[in-house]
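so my prof wants the structure for this chain in the tokens format not the other one, which i didnt know existed until like an hour ago. anyway here's the sequence
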Amino acid sequence: MNTPIGAVGCLTADQVREVLIEATSAPSLHNSQPWRFHCTADAIALHADRSRAVPVADPEHRELLLACGAALLNLRLAIRAAGVQPDVNVLPYRCTPDLLATVRPARRRPATPTDVELAAAIPRRRTNRKPFLSTPVPMSLHSQLRQAAEAERAWLAIPEREQLPKLQALAQQAHDAQLTDAEFVAELRHWTGRAPRTPDGVPASSSGPIPEPQDAWVLRDFSSGQATARVAGKDFEPEPLICVLGSFQDGVSAQLHAGMAMQRVLLAATVAGLSSSFLSQIVEVPTTRKELRELIGGGLWPQAVLRIGYGSPVPATPRRSLDDVVARN
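here's what i got, hopefully its the right format
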């Protein structure tokens, strides 16, 4: 590593490297990794890196902020698992809008079992775009996932069975709208179907098979057209657990906290042996996002739609090196 990283607060230099690696394991739209970190002697600052934006799919940078919130949650948990209490200041300076948070590893404090469990799940969490088993997710886990969202001041709405046909229709509507946009298609192909050693984007190996007419839920082709053949006997599951992660407001702060809630839900799912992926198109198209908001009651702003179930192991997507994302005074 060329960028010198020293101790920060109560963390040693080695611990700082470890918590930064954990932070950068967060999910992001098309694995764009839109974050930068700045280390000083007493704090780690998280900045939005808008040069990594995906402007056609995410013109208002809402998903960029969700990704940065997920990275912030990982950073908090990794520091807690190291036995240190992080003091977190979200959006500390209005005059510096890309500075999203400062995290000060302020003092020693034993980690809770939940902190340790969730932090251990960070490197195991994957976005699994492949078919899941038809095994339903038990109701007891529904409650655990909801509690994970609520711990970060968000809400996890799980649509009722009778609402799912409408949700499927919204997914199809959004999918069709995006695929008729030549700029969207070009952007998607830019970020997907990447070679295995590319440090960002979605490798072809991490894409799932292309859904066929019998598959109820529309999923994107992340292979950039390379997944032309189906895997025999691998239909997508007919009834995945679909969850809508919602916030009570829709500004920058709410979206950042929604990202933390989203990541806590994903980590809780990982701890429970579940796999997850995203149905992002529904919340990327303004008309379908509006209809989704009405479908879940109108009181929440939908920020992410998650597909959760029992899946087979998949490889991790690549990550940029710390040299590319960390600066130090």
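also thought this was worth mentioning. The chain is about 35% helix and 20% strand.
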